[in-house]
Amino acid sequence: MNKPVHPLRKYVVSTALVTSLALTPLVGSSVSAHSNAPADNGSSVQITESNVLTAGDRGQAVSSLQSKLASYGYYGYNVDGKYGPITKNAVIAFQKQQGLAVDGIAGPNTQASLASGSVAPAPDTTSDNDTKAAQSDSDDSEERATAVKAASTSTASTASASTGSASNADIVNAAESLIGVPYQLGGETRAALGSSGFINLVMEEAGTDVNRTHAGMWASDGVFVDSPSVGDVVFFENTYNVDRVATHSGIYIGGNKMIHAGKEGVEVSDMDYDYWENRYIGAKSIQ
């Protein structure tokens, strides 16, 4: 009487086995698709991703990053909440000094290192391209002192406005011809140029004269314009001394770019970089 039962049991077992085998690929696929995101820690993964800061990001998290970098000497500019080239280069300098992967992205490891309290101090020098003008203009403080000393023998020379006339095309041509000239403290010739010496030589070759210093040009030469045109002089403040106005200048060439004398020499720079954008004070037409 028990014989009919055995085939039934075999049938049930076989059905269960088939069902199990049929479902196995589906389950395996599900596990594989989510192997990097444990179900119990889904919120943790999302928080980690949201903490990754990279170029182009803005907001309080970026401001906090800038403040931490500044506290260890890696960032010396405005805490503006904008992850621009300066912030990226500060992160790169920090990563190099801490022995982290160098990518300019403030990910979990970089932020954890910043928060650890065991941070190697910033090196004395930095590869931040956006600090070239700040470093060269630090040298220009000496250049400015030289100009002031020379001016003390002739008050007329410090008060004089530009003389002669120059077309904007002549100014741009003169500036472009100087690209690549090396930087030198107080340089005034094609052999080597300081930042204000560059402007002076450009104007001289274009057929006009201006004051020796950035501050002098800002105060006395040319006329102010609402927005720069090609050939105008663009001015910046607080590049090395927060108590002075107009500490750096360049020749505007359009496209929000300028030619100026940075630490690496006469070069073209993008004024959209947060360093320049935060320090721009205006433009003057000098003709």
UniProtKB/TrEMBL annotation:
Compositional bias annotation for Polar residues: 124-136
Positions of the UniProt region annotated as Disordered: 112-166
Regions that span the bilayer: none
Top-rank taxon: Bacteria
Species per Swiss-Prot/TrEMBL record: Salimicrobium jeotgali
Bias kind Low complexity: ranges: 147-166
Annotated ranges, domain NlpC/P60: 165-287
Protein's name in the database: Cell wall associated protein
Any one GO MF annotation of this record: cysteine-type peptidase activity
